[in-house]
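=== RUN LOG ===
request id: a7f3
mode: sequence -> structure
chains: 1
length: 321
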Amino acid sequence: MQKITNKIALEEHFSAPRLQPSIKDVAFFDPEVLRAIEVALPEFQDQRLRAMDQAGISIAVLSQTAPGVQSIRDSVLAAELAHEANDFLHRRIETAPKRFRGFACLALQDVDRACDELKRCIQELGFVGALVNGSTNGAYLDEPQFAPFWHTLEQLDVPFYLHPGLPTDHPQAFRGHPELEGPVWRWTCDTATHVLRLVFGGVFDRHHTARLILGHMGETLPYMLWRLDSRAAVTTVGRGLSRPPAETLRHHVMVTTSGVCADAPLRCALEAMGAEAVMFSTDYPYEDIQVAANWIENADLPDDQRIKVCVANAERLLRLG
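=== RESULT ===
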């Protein structure tokens, strides 16, 4: 079994000072757990780099943690905070430029301004893509007003990481069951639904070169590909698609292992999406970075697949070679 000491991790979180999440934003976290996370999020040097070294991670791609700016009602304030977060991240990357890369934080409340900010982050700050935390005040990215965003992603030829955010509605199914909130289950439901809206809404038919990254082993979607195709084929909605949903997802989506350290879902993702579509991540500091590293080193994989997952796929997608 080959040990890999130059792993690339794609869902590694930080927080800019004015976007630091609080207990009121993420009430489903145990307060003691959240306090440790709050200490780790703005720290870029000793603790984070030491943890990366011990885990054999050479590059961490950093992103503003949820809820970020997506739930801010004031579009001017949201854009200001996103710009500020990107500048903050850029300054921190410069302290260890061989170890860190960045995903742009974008306030899609004002789509045109967000597109300008994305261009600035890629062309001037050297970021490698963008990450958005869920819907923006309840607006999902298949809606017509976001077409310029998808066009800008294609123009810049960079991927987009769709990370869970704070859902704005509260379905009856979750009422009275707070244990299902947040990352336990509700975030997965919302994020997987968001992606399927993109597929069934024809976003990838209109934007042929758009590339999407999903964390948490694909938010359950790799497990569902056969059924998505089967049921789409016998519904009136499915008849409007240019190709089966699974084909669209395989062509446009890559997944990361963030927050899932188990062989069975990894094997499912590799078989369902392809060995070139799965990438390593740890979800630091929400998950234990060493647990994730130890697991991927010992996962039941052939070494050529382990290298693709840990290094080669991310190098290719983000052009890190």
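=== NOTES ===
Residues 150 and 207 are 7 Å apart (CA to CA).
The beta strands are 7-14, 57-64, 100-105, 129-133, 160-163, 212-214, 253-256, 278-279.
=== END ===
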